[in-house]
Task: inverse folding
């Protein structure tokens, strides 16, 4: 397993609290109009399947697009510069997760302009009358403006191909999955543990060290 996949998974785990804050209200939307209360747990499951599908798709598209440009240009310098940029994003992300600096939120606001054109497609799927309808709903909401997602997409862009780009985004989404599946369970021990400041800052420190190492490695390759 690639170390980038493991790092992406760790970011997903550490950033799940942010994802839950942005998407927590969706749990209520998915329960409105459901035909069977005994199957309500299926809605969050299928919603998250759709969300991971959208992450993987955009990761694959970005990875393929950038690698194609690098291939036809005949030089690898674009990928080297993107690896450098992704390392910087990783450091910014670590600072955000550790709550040392909130600059990532400014990047997040940039996606609001696009989101207003995408969100109506998700709203048309409400109410969720069958659990399978939650898959396309989750797919649409996977495009919700998110600084964490944007940071991970820089990794996908520098990955070198569509498969690696898709897998980086998939493992990121997989890391967010445990906590996202507990939406609505306020007593969840997992929820409390992942949201604890000690856990976030220990993980953020590890990620920061990894980001600094990648930045150094990226600078060496560019030079």
Result:
């Amino acid at each position: 397993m690639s170390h980038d996949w493991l790092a992406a998974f760790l970011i997903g785990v550490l950033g799940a609290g942010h994802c839950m804050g942005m998407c927590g209200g969706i749990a209520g939307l998915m329960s409105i109009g459901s035909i069977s209360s005994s199957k309500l747990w299926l809605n969050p499951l299928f919603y998250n399947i759709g969300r991971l599908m959208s992450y993987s798709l955009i990761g694959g598209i970005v990875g393929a697009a950038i690698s194609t440009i690098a291939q036809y240009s005949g030089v690898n310098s674009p990928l080297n510069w993107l690896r450098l940029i992704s390392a910087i994003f990783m450091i910014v992300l670590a600072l955000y997760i550790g709550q040392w600096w909130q600059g990532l939120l400014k990047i997040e606001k940039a996606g609001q302009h696009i989101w207003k054109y995408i969100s109506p497609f998700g709203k048309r799927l409400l109410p969720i009358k069958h659990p399978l309808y939650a898959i396309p709903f989750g797919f649409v909401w996977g495009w919700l403006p998110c600084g964490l997602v944007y940071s991970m997409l820089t990794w996908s862009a520098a990955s070198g191909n569509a498969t690696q780009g898709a897998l980086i985004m998939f493992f990121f989404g997989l890391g967010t999955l445990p906590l996202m599946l507990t939406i609505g369970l306020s007593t969840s021990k997992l929820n409390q543990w992942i949201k604890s400041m000690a856990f976030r800052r220990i993980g953020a420190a590890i990620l920061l060290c990894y980001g600094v190492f990648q930045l150094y490695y990226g600078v060496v390759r560019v030079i």
Q: What stands out?
A: The longest helix spans residues 42-73. Residues 3-30+57-113+143-222 form one domain.
